[in-house]
Design goal:
Elements lengths: L8 E6 L11 H9 L4 E7 L5 H13 L4 E6 L2 H14 L7 E5 L12 H19 L8 E4 L3 E5 L3 H12 L3 E6 L13 E2 L4 E2 H14 L3 E5 L1 E9 L2 E8 L14 H5 L3 E3 L8 E3 L1 E2 L11 E2 L5 H5 L4 H5 L12 E7 L1 E4 L3 E3 L16 E3 H8 L20 E8 L15 H15 L4 E6 L9 H10 L3 E4 L2 E6 L6 E7 L4 E7 L1 E6 L1 E3 L3 H8 L26 E3 L9 H21 L1 E4 L4 E3 L9 H5 L5 E7 L2 E6 L9 H5 L5 E3 L4 H12 L2
Parallel strand pairs: 1-2, 1-3, 3-4, 6-7, 6-18, 7-10, 18-29, 20-27, 21-22, 21-27, 22-23
Antiparallel strand pairs: 5-30, 8-9, 11-12, 12-17, 13-14, 15-16, 19-28, 24-25, 25-26, 31-34, 32-33
Length: 660
């Protein structure tokens, strides 16, 4: 459309079934709209986003020679790309389209007020028309894509995503901060509801990652800096010194056998011990030892070096230093997983005070054949086999005041699995699960619940209010109300297992700053859309999966990891990406070079550059710009303009709304 051509606007009002039409008088809005300036066609349809609805728009553009389109429907976040594509297919520049949200911003907030909702819908459409008259055609930008991927986090989510992308032919850098990949799944004994051996499922995948020619495994490493944009991310990785030559180490274990220093094992959650030179667990990948600098006698006292003396491969390197690796990748997948809620924050349960109160993950290490007790369930206080075990649900979960408000999803099934394992390993043991609600939502989960009930496991609906210890026996007294019987009761058990909440990783805030992505109110990383874009973030080229996005079980984690890999493979396979043109640009004659925009830009897309001696101007890297508008709002000289949201366009909307 030429600049002199008058706007010819077509307006399409959506019923959205009864979401809109059940509150707003759609026909009245159409009649009102048809009388507005520059409107040459106005109509309504039941579902504008459907194929017939889109066909109606395309036919109307051609028939009425429309050069602007306004759709009044749901949130632009949901269907703006749909309608832009529709306009483009009809030969119209997709950025000559404007959308009015008369569902979320109108109908859904004015239920039971049809007259008010109808008047508000008219006002919103009028504002959209005002802006549409001033829209200008824009051209998307195109960039080449580096055909490699960075995955942060080496748990089951990161492992699955890495294998999927590597098998698709792309090179993958898998970064894990611990000495081995495997994550929390490596600590588990069995998985519910099938009771498969966790290691039997996970270990082959870990080995595949370690051997895959398209995967560079970077364990004991952390991402430090991330710059750039989709297709062209520049990443700095800190490789921490192991003080062991990874290529030379054979994992024979002689060094650990000879090492005189024993410290609590992080992998066994302090229930077992490890040496100052160690591998986290027998199936570690890579099978390379690491020296714990904080506990090694050579680093703390300048003595020992026993490991160096006895290492048959001569792999010990006390002079090894941390190093920085620089990578260039096309996409990034965040698969950083979860932490466990600190049950010490709820002192009424006695965790950290009474040795025989443990968490579910600690129970996993006790029951695991490769754990510190060889798979025997024993009491931490005295090593005796408990004849009565209680499992308490929702420790920190669904607790707005002292924990987290959400359900952690896996805890009910994990505790039922643990209860079954007690019955399996300690015949005749008394086992009881205390719960608020049992949420067995997955495939085969309800059947597993019936199975454990048939095994004689008691299920008591009631929240335990307090646990205290009998100091003579080490047994634990539980005080609670059975809400089904309406009775306050006290009961005694030899071992208590707490199902603690899943919470975001402690590193999540730092990673949020690093990747410039959003987190939700719960602290987990936020997806672009919970239904339509569940593994994408608002930063193009950065994806999330697994428990980094929110609590979920292993099947859902693996499915989401494969989904993230599939989405990431799209730009990698195409070799180029198209970016939104709704970016900022600088009016050079107005720019004073004050630097306010550079300081406030969250995406580091603005840089001050010297244009002549003593004179600076702001310059926008449009590939980095995400169109947030902060720079334009902060600029004291009004020297920065955001395409598609210029001041005349926004002011026209305000004036239209104020004139209704």
């Amino acid at each position: 459309m030429s600049e002199k051509e008058e706007p010819r606007i077509g307006v399409f009002i959506c019923h959205c079934g009864t979401n809109i039409a059940g509150v707003v008088d759609v026909k009245q809005v159409v009649d009102f709209t048809s009388k507005q300036p520059n409107v040459v066609f106005a109509t309504d349809y039941t579902y504008m986003c459907s194929d017939p609805g889109q066909a109606l728009i395309k036919d109307s553009i051609k028939e009425h020679k429309l050069n602007r389109v306004v759709v009044a429907a749901c949130s632009p976040r949901m269907h703006e790309p749909t309608f832009r594509k529709t306009c483009q297919e009809a030969g119209l520049n997709p950025y000559l389209f404007e959308m009015a949200n008369i569902r979320e911003q109108c109908c859904w907030v004015h239920m039971g007020e049809p007259e008010k909702a109808t008047e508000k819908a008219k006002a919103l459409v009028k504002a959209a028309l005002a802006k549409a008259s001033l829209l200008e055609p824009l051209t998307p930008m195109e960039f080449n894509v580096e055909r490699s991927a960075l995955i942060i986090g080496g748990g089951i989510a990161g492992i699955q995503a890495a294998l999927d992308l590597a098998n698709a032919g792309f090179h993958v850098y898998l970064v894990e901060k611990e000495p081995s990949i495997g994550g929390h799944m490596a600590q588990l004994d069995k998985t519910f509801p099938t009771l498969d051996c966790s290691a039997c499922i996970l270990t082959p995948k870990m080995v595949d990652v370690g051997r895959h020619p398209n995967i560079t495994l970077l364990t004991y490493c952390e991402a430090q800096e991330v710059e750039g944009f989709i297709g062209n991310f520049k990443v700095k990785i800190l490789r921490k010194a192991r003080y062991v030559d990874e290529k030379a180490c054979t994992g024979c274990g002689v060094c650990a056998q000879k090492c005189p220093v024993k410290v609590p094992s992080e992998f066994d959650l302090g229930l077992g011990m490890r040496k100052a030179i160690y591998i986290p667990f027998p199936q570690s990948v890579p099978i390379t030892h690491t020296i714990d600098k904080e506990n090694c006698l050579y680093f703390t006292r300048g003595v020992c070096k026993v490991c160096e003396k006895f290492c048959p491969a001569k792999a010990i390197r006390f002079d090894q230093q941390d190093e920085t690796i620089e990578l260039k990748v096309g996409i990034i997948i965040n698969a950083t997983g979860y932490d466990l809620f600190n049950a010490k924050k709820l002192p009424q349960y006695g965790y950290g005070k009474y040795k025989n109160v443990i968490t579910g993950l600690e129970f996993e290490r006790l029951v695991n054949a490769s754990g510190p007790t060889g798979g025997k369930i024993v009491r931490p206080s005295d090593g005796k086999t408990p004849k009565s075990v209680a499992f308490i649900q929702c420790i920190g979960s669904r607790d707005e005041h002292h924990g987290v408000p959400y359900c952690s999803r896996i805890c009910c099934m994990a505790s039922l699995k643990h209860a079954h394992q007690v019955k399996e390993k300690i015949p005749g043991a008394e086992v009881c699960v205390f719960y608020i609600d049992l949420r067995c939502f997955g495939k085969g989960y309800e059947e597993f619940l019936v199975r454990v009930q048939d095994e004689g496991i008691r299920l008591v609906r009631g929240k335990v209010s307090e646990i205290y210890e009998n100091p003579e026996t080490g047994n634990l007294r539980l005080r609670l109300e059975d809400t089904l019987l309406g009775e306050v009761m006290e009961t005694e058990f030899e071992l208590v297992v707490l199902a603690v909440a899943l919470v975001p990783r402690a590193e999540a805030p730092a990673l949020q700053t690093l990747l410039k992505v959003s987190r939700g109110a719960d602290g987990f990383f936020l997806e672009a859309h919970p239904k339509l874009r569940p593994v994408e973030t608002h930063i193009p080229g950065i994806f999330i999966c697994g428990c980094a996005q929110g609590p979920k079980d292993i099947p859902d984690t693996v499915a989401q990891a494969s989904a993230a890999a599939a989405q990431a493979a799209i730009p990698l396979s195409q070799g180029k990406v198209t970016a939104e043109p709704l970016t900022a640009y600088v009016l050079e004659d107005y720019c004073s070079g004050c630097g306010v925009c550079e300081a406030i830009c969250p995406y580091k897309a603005i840089e001050l550059k010297e244009v002549e001696e003593g004179k600076r101007r702001a310059e926008v890297n449009e590939a980095l710009c995400q169109g947030c508008g902060l720079c334009g709002a902060a600029c004291p000289s009004k020297a920065i303009v955001l395409r598609g949201f210029t001041e005349p366009q926004l002011m026209s909307q305000i004036e239209a709304l104020s004139s209704v």
